[in-house]
Amino acid sequence: MSSAGRLPTYFIPHGGGPCFFMDPPMGGPGTWDRMADFLRSLPGDVGEKPRAILIITGHWETTGLSVTAGARPGLIFDYYGFPENTYHLTYPAPGDPALAGRVADLLEDAGFPTELDAERGFDHGMFIPLKVALPDASIPVVELSVRRDLDAAAHIAIGAALAPLRDEGVLILASGMSYHNLRGFFANDTRIEMISETFDAWLVDAVCQPKASREAALIDWETAPSARICHPREEHLIPLMVAAGAAGNDAAVHAYSDVVLGKKLSGFRFG
Question: Domain named Extradiol ring-cleavage dioxygenase class III enzyme subunit B: which ranges (predicted)?
């Protein structure tokens, strides 16, 4: 935590399906090692243990906003065609109904209608990275959906509405992927590799600018080089907007940089 007691906020990669729990690994040995190392580093990077986590993933889209409100959410195995063992993973982190209510109140006060969903479980955008980062599953977790319209400016404003949680011991994690073109991911094509590098360079520069410039760039992300090739649909990029909005004036650090299956990937810490 900072000297002021404010927790940072992060945009983290969650990998490809249950990639960290497959033998042999998808893509071969070592493919996901650096990403796993980054996720394992998060507790030490944060410092003091958060009282709870609010996670936003690209795997839960709703018309408005919705937040998990159950005390013991189950897991949703929303990936397909993977080894049988990956459908028996566990992550028994408790929910936090009181935090869910606080999240809904903050969002409602900012003009974003939000539903409490006591039945919704945790999707793999939550439990896969957290099983690597925090395997003891002892910290309560609440998951927030993204809006189906995937409006970048709205999600930055959603993040800004949630910023007070950082002073309340809540770690805000945005879980997605800075490159998410599944067809391109598994294509052995050097042109696609160069495209991912070009977009990633733009993204790092945009995110690491001061607040006003950062937000303007992210709102206009579709004009970035090869933006729609790297994100044919932006549900895995939109969580970054929430993290950036929650960051306020805090600077960004390019906390994770890697090449996976030939594609450049990044993660960020704010504050």
Answer: 9-250
> Residue 237 and residue 221: Cα distance in Å, rounded?
10
Tokens of 89: 């993973």
* Dihedral in degrees, nearest 10, Cα atoms 70, 145, 65, 160: 110
Segments forming the whole domain that contains residue 221? 9-270
The predicted-structure confidence for 119-175, as pLDDT tens digits, reads as follows 999 999 999 999 999 999 999 999 999 999 999 999 999 999 999 999 999 999 999
Q: Look at residue 46 and tell me if it is in a domain.
A: yes
Within a domain: 114: yes
Task: Indicate whether 196 belongs to any domain.
Answer: yes
Q: Categorize the per-residue pLDDT at 3 as very low, low, confident or very high, splitting at 50, 70 and 90.
A: very low
Residue 266 lies in a domain: yes
The CATH code of the domain that includes 223 is 3.40.830.10
Instruction: Give the number of domains in the chain.
Output: 1
Q: What is the pLDDT of residue 1?
A: 37
* Whole-angstrom distance, CA of residue 106 vs CA of residue 220: 26
Asked if residue 124 lies in contact with residue 22, where contact means CB atoms within 8 angstroms, the answer is no
